[in-house]
Structures are given as C-alpha cells and as structure tokens.
C-alpha cells in the first residue's frame, strides 16, 4: 500500500509499505477514504515530538471503511463507515475509567506517534470498539475528518477548559482548524464576545464568516492594546491558546481578565515563561490538556443535526500520490488560503 512516511526532520515521503494486519483481538484494520493533516504532524516534522521516530507513517485523523475486525470487536461490522479518533482508548484502565483516555495505559495518542498512522491506504486501529465511531449516512466523509481531532480538541481543550459561559468574553489565539473548531463550539454556549487572533488575514476573514465578532492581527504593533480595548480594558473571561509558541502563550497571559481562565491547546516544543509576578493575585486558572476525545459522539450528533458547520474547515484535498504537496500546502497555509488539508485515497470511490 501507499503511505506517507516521516523519514527524518523536515522530511516526508510517499512510500510503499506492507498492508497492516490484525495483531490483537481488539484491533480493526480500516481502509482509508480520507485522512487529514494536523498542526501536530507539523510539530513532528519540526522535531518538537521526539517520541515520533523516523520510519513512522504519520496521521491520527481519518475516515474509512472497516476492512477486518479482531474477534473480540462486536460493536462494528466489516463494511461500516467509521471515523477514526485521534485518541485510542481501551475503556478499562484507570485513566479511561476517569475519562482521561488521552492517557490510556495501552492507548492514548498512539496513531501516527508510536504506531503507524492514518495517512496510508490502510491503518491498524488498536482498541477498535472505543477508538472508531460509526458514521450516520448523512455525514460527509471528507468533512468528518475534522472530528477526528480538531473538533474534540477545540471543544474539550479549548472551550470547556476555558469555561466559556453565556454572556462571557472569549479570545482565541490561533485561527487554524483547532482555533476555528474552538470558535464554532464556543458559539454553542452563546458568549457575548468572541475575538479571533492570527497573523493570517485570510484565516481571520474565515473566522469572521464563521461568527467571530471581531478579529485582530497579532502582527500589528498595538495588537495587545486593540484586544484589550475590545473588553474596555478588562481582558477576556476565556482565553484559548491554539498555536503552541512562547509569543502566543505570553499574549494569552496579558489578555486574561480577573477571574478568567487560560486554556492552553497548542503543542509546545520549547519552555515558556509564566508571569506569576503579574498574575498571582488575579484569581485566574490555567488549564492544559491532551484531548481525550470523549465528546466525539456528541460532536457527530451536532454534525448530523446540522448545528455545526464542520464542512467549511476542509479547504483542500489531494490524492495520496501528492501527499508531499498536501503537506507543503498546509505548511504554507497562508499562501494557499488553506485550513484543513485532506488526503484522498484511490480506493475511496
Ligand atoms: N492539546 C491537544 O490535544 C492538541 C490536539 C490537536 C492539536 N493541538 C495543537 O493545537 C495547535 C493548533 O493546531 P492547528 O491544526 O489548528 O494548527 P495550525 O498550524 O493550522 O494553526 C496554527 C495557527 O497559528 C497561527 N500563528 C502562528 N504564529 C502566530 C502568532 N505569533 N500569533 C498569532 N497566530 C499565530 C498560524 O497562522 C495558524 O493559523 C497546534 O499547536 C497543534 O499541535 C493540540
Ligand atoms: Zn491532531
Ligand atoms: Zn485505557
């Protein structure tokens, strides 16, 4: 089969690989229809995730058809169209039982990290019962790739962690697919002000179309002052960091209101300063998390009912043979006005 393989820092290649087979009775093998590229895949290429080793097939997002099932997977049938969750969950270990399946003792973020991932014609999914979600017929396969990771991350690590409330004020720093998913799911809670921050004007324009009340380009000299002015100098109740660099986490610390919450979503590859000297008396909290993806069934229901405009996030798609171009498009998203980039597999139709 064809697969997108991480071959070393900054390098990705389309290579031939053997088709995966069932290794444990709890596994499934899924034939991909569509996979997608995540900001976290770019962090792997940058060397920010040293636990991902060269030779790995990348990807933890995708939609496919169940090709083969281990003998103890009873909730799925061969031929089912399924969403592959970015999180693999056994459902039985001490972390899964506490709802922290990101830290499942035999799962968590394994696909495209510790084991071969979804950017290939076939993928082996461990703990298939809880890690695959059957898709209702009305759900578009390509659009649904955004629910593997971006939407549960935006909702759980962003909106819920930042305690978005009716009437509250929200700022989201980073208008990538994860930030956009935070924007769309924040709106479900009817905050009175949602502001999106990025350097990319095209993404800021999309954010306005998706319902942001205001946008600020953080590349302008007085960005911080402009942002604070939107709250009459008070700062924001909910501050969501969806980039993963020191400059944006710093900005979040400057934007949080008294009593507010900072939710860090970004994957960080270097240390970041914590300004306790300024923040110690502000009655704030800072939350950081790897997504558990426990909200995925709810997000799929919202997608089915039409309450979430998930389809707008997937802006580009390429065949697997052009996987390297798909990566360069996502890496230079601003030039291509790209948000989520999908990879389509020839076996899909
Ligand atoms: N915590 C989790 O479980 C989890 C899960 C998925 C993704 N992530 C992380 O979330 C982050 C966002 O993911 P994504 O797929 O949307 O990535 P992305 O790369 O598409 O988006 C990042 C955005 O940040 C913007 N940006 C860069 N520098 C900036 C700056 N100085 N000021 C303002 N904006 C700036 C970019 O223009 C881009 O729009 C990444 O760090 C990703 O690794 C975390
Ligand atoms: Zn991801
Ligand atoms: Zn577990």
TrEMBL record:
Give this protein's Gene Ontology molecular function annotations.
oxidoreductase activity; zinc ion binding
Domain (Enoyl reductase (ER)) ranges: 10-343
InterPro entries reported for this sequence: ADH-like_C, ADH-like_N, ADH_Zn_CS, ER, GroES-like_sf, NAD(P)-bd_dom_sf
The organism sits in which domain of life? Eukaryota
Q: What's the cofactor?
A: Zn(2+)
Question: Which Pfam families does this UniProt record tie to the protein?
Answer: ADH_N, ADH_zinc_N
Query: PROSITE patterns given for it?
Result: ADH_ZINC (PS00059)
Query: Is Oxidoreductase among the key words of this record?
Result: yes
**Keywords, in A-Z order:** Metal-binding, Oxidoreductase, Zinc
SMART domains noted in UniProt: PKS_ER
- Family in the record: Belongs to the zinc-containing alcohol dehydrogenase family.
Q: What is the designated name of this protein?
A: Enoyl reductase (ER) domain-containing protein
Query: Which species expresses this protein natively?
Result: Penicillium argentinense
